[in-house]
Amino acid sequence: MEACRKHGVLLDRETLQHIVETNDKRRFSFSEDGRKIRANQGHSVSIDLNLEPVKPPERLYHGTADRFLLSIREQGLVKGNRHHVHLSEDPVTARRVGMRHGKPAILQILAGEMHQDGYTFFRSANGVWLTEFVPVHYLREK
Questions:
Q1: pTM, entire model
Q2: CA-to-CA distance for 69 and 96, rounded, in angstroms?
Q3: What domains sit in the chain, N to C, each tagged with a CATH number?
Q4: Is there a contact between 41 and 123 (Cβ–Cβ < 8 Å)?
Q5: Which residues contact 113 (CB under 8 A, 6 or more apart)?
Q6: Could you read off the pLDDT of 19-29 as tens digits, one per residue?
Q7: Which of 9, 40, 73, 102 is the most buried (most CB within 10 A)?
């Protein structure tokens, strides 16, 4: 809030609390002492989220635009400029994500098999599943 004030933006604790609680993607969370706020995932700078590896469900989903499918079929899912590839637990959420980028395409990820083969998964505070890379042979088009 202090940084906002320095830049001419007035923000009080009540408003900030409302933003955290009502954000539809639960993008933000407060520290345990409530004095700091952070993004739950999707950072543009390197940050340690203190996430522990966790066993994923058998299937996860990735929403994208259909114009990216050719590249994905060749390379798999790469994190690009992000810290991780973002995955959803259900195809409905994945479709919403894909719609932001154009005509949506939904990919099913064989996450259980990936995990058995040694790939690591994390789950962010807002329920987004994260992994470094998804090779082509673990992808299925829905």
A1: 0.70
A2: 17
A3: 2-39 (no CATH), 60-141 (3.20.170.30)
A4: no
A5: 138
A6: 777 776 667 77
A7: 40
64: amino acid identity, one letter: T
CA distance 43 to 26: 14
pLDDT tens digit sequence for 74-125: 999 998 877 789 999 999 999 999 998 899 999 999 999 999 999 999 998 7
